[in-house]
Amino acid sequence: MRITHKLLIALLLTGQSAYGLQAQDAAIHAQKDTLPHPLHRAIHKLSVDVRPAYLTPTNVFFKGINASQKDMNTFLSGHLKYGIQFNPDSKFGRLYPHTTQGIGLAVNTMFNDMEIGTPVALYVFQSSRIASLTPRLSLDYEWNFGASFGWKKYDEKFNSYNLVTGSKINAYINLGFFLNWRLSPHWNLSAGVEGTHFSNGNSHYPNSGVNTLGARVGITRNFGDEQTLAKAQDAMPPRILPFSPHVSYDLTLYGGTKIRGWVDDYGSTLVPGSFGVVGINFNPMYNFHRMLRAGLSLDAQYDESANIREYKAGTDANGVPRFYRPPFKEQFNAGLSARCEFVMPVFSINIGVGYHFLHKGKDTKGWYQILALKTSLTRNLYLHTGYQLQNFHDPNHLMLGLGWRFNNRR
User: Which member of 90, 146, 189, 260 has the lowest number of beta carbons within 10 Å of its beta carbon?
Assistant: First the structure.
């Protein structure tokens, strides 16, 4: 009986302990549920924009040297966008309030479909708040990055006036600043200014590019319950989670293609075909803030077209110039660049200015500039899409690659 009595007391104590642990686990789970997954009860948005603009005359084609013999200075685009804003109670919603990212579709016209086309752009975008002006009015920004399709390209026989673009697909880059007015929790009205650039990144000839400066007007429908929508658009600053400054290391491998040509005293020369470019960047960066990191990057690159001008091998039977392949040391270069990166959820914008400290020949000498978009695929793996200029004005090539971030403490 004594053994049975002691056994009963032990079972009761064990049951109470188990019950206590279950209650503690339930409390922990309840606490975790107060910070929902970023996409849990996210705010979905549908926007329509109209963007009239001035088409800058960067080429004689726009100055009346075209089939219609009329100046082209008007540009118009219509946009349909779908975006997601993180729940204001989620981790990302508290770290990056008022931020929306998504995809967009635009139809663009220069009112000359016969010669240049009516291109359609497909892009990713991100917008966020710069400053709250009143409880219902704020100053926001938005960038777009993608590709545009349906261009009418240059053709020596059938489209000889179009010296603007030599490809049916061109990159699309846009940056806008606008006033965002909250009409109600479900509706927003916006109006502002923007700039747009279309280019094939020197992958085809010609590559004059298309640039516009204009206005934008849009309306947005927000989907979600009114309490969440009101909290997400609140002008008051959110409760910020702690951040520890640290050093991270980005290793990027990329490739691209480019054309090669030049103008000298004997006329213009376009080398037949296209050339490959491969490169690698190692970029340690100090993370000053959750939205900003900066550092130096060691950049190495092999350019198949570099210094080919010095290795001309005559012409073929049709009069097309031929070239020998330069030695590797004249097509390889290394540089050091200063990098600054604006960090947001999913996307980071990287800007760099550098100088080639290791080079051989004129083509690999001098300054270079980089603008790149890094899209997070996993915690450390990212897609790198960029564009490189030479000496601040000459288009060089596009950059498409993958990168890995070491010591990522975010």
Answer: 189
